[in-house]
Amino acid sequence: MTFDSSFFILYIMRRNVVLLLYIVLFIACADKEEPIMSFKLSDVTLKYDWNGGIRDISVEADNIWYISSSVPSWLSIDFKSDTNLSIIAGCNDTKKTRSCDIIFSTAWKADTLYVVQTAKERLAFVGEKLLFMNAEENSFSVEIDKNIGFEVVYLNNADMWLSQTPDFQVGNSISINDLGTTKLSFRVGENPSLNQRFGDIIICNDYYGLADTLCICQAGKSEKYKDGEIEQLQQAIYSDLNLVIMCDGFASKDLNYNGKYYQAACAAADYFFSIEPYKSYRNYFNVYAVFAESREEGVGEKDSWKKTNNKFGTAFGTGTEIVCNDDLVFEYARKVKGLPAGKPLTVIVVLNSAKYAGTTYLYSDGNSIALCPMSDKPSPNDFEGLIHHEAGGHGFGFLCDEYVYYQKAMPESRKQDLKKWQKLGYQMNLDFTDDTSAVLWKDFIGMEKYSKVGAYEGGYEYQYGVWRSEENSCMNNNIPYFNVQSRWSIVSRIMKLSGKEFGISDFIRNDNFVYPEEVDTRSAKEFIPLGNPVWIMAD
């Protein structure tokens, strides 16, 4: 057999060509990778404080995307476009931080957005804020509801006879950030003095601007307060506003330490601060008790043979009217040392009577006297309700009554009188228009937080020609709730007298309130209007 070299060469060449084609095909296939699909979130974490708010995110994707996880009820999503959306968180009224994962998905990939919202910061003593101790060495424990760290501070030289147990020292920072309550224990030293003594224990967090005060009252030996003697019931932290409380118709036997007079003054102070907004702004006020001994117990009657020789001449007049010797009231109030000159005084005079009545003297210079018996009527017409209406509403807030007595239009003379006081910044809870774009409380109308705010006709005794901001309020029938315009007026006055910059947005952010069940009822069945405030233009 003859070997054909040309044939062999041709065979080799053909085989190499086939191998080369296989190699090219393999390389081409190897270069053909899976397509890369872009998918990215602009943020992977969203954080909200307890007020909630809106956060915007964008989605970068080359394919259709969707949210594949459930969204909790406290969040809502607003899709702005195919790539942009807003995530809205409501207010966190719970006591806990809350969070969730929102999963964004495509057919190729998934990504997770972590959303977290903190709880509202809280720091407060649990239970009574005024504790009475006897003169002997003693101890007590208190609980604190908090979710932030806090510091313990003593005022009024309380560190001389109060101490924490077992190991904490004055001013120690206690960094406890878990939820729930913390119990603190204190030792009270023996009081060797005949005089009662007071000390304030304050828990505070300067970063969040939160503080609460526990007042400790330790009795001395059995002695009585003297006429004109002063006791400070509360020391202000954030300002130097002054509330002065005195009582009338209390005889010598009532002036024992921790006796009837003192208990009545303390109750009046507690009731004054038991309603918003005073509850939230309590630490702006100094509170003093001025002791006044009456020759006779009780309250007389103005136009009657029945007279009572009490200290301040308080007497019941027509209906629920009360009169007093206002000059002598202010003379006793000025016995408090260190009161700032030129700053107005709010004075509460507690009457030794269970009658339902009340009248407030209001002066154009900002001074006021609220006359409040210790009414034994059911709430809201009890002693506490009278303090809310007369002292909190009229006395400090300089608010108008909102109840309706006459089913007719307000006379022009009454309107002009009200407008004259409004020029001084008082009586700002009523207006003469129902135009929601012009009424005094227009900034609150339409806000979800203030859904009950509108223009309701009737106030200052008349049904027509005058409007109030909500259906019902303390200035109507003593319920423990001031409407939003009343709260704004009160807080504005607190901040103005404190010399602090404060706008309506600050108020809204810090406004704490709860609608009472009675808020939708125009008037309580047994409500009796209190005495008309006495408005006096000062010289």
UniProtKB/TrEMBL annotation:
One of its GO terms (molecular function) is metallopeptidase activity. It comes from the Bacteria. Pfam families: Peptidase_M64. Gene3D superfamilies: Collagenase (Catalytic Domain), Immunoglobulins. This is IgA Peptidase M64. It comes from Bacteroides intestinalis. CDD domains: BACON.
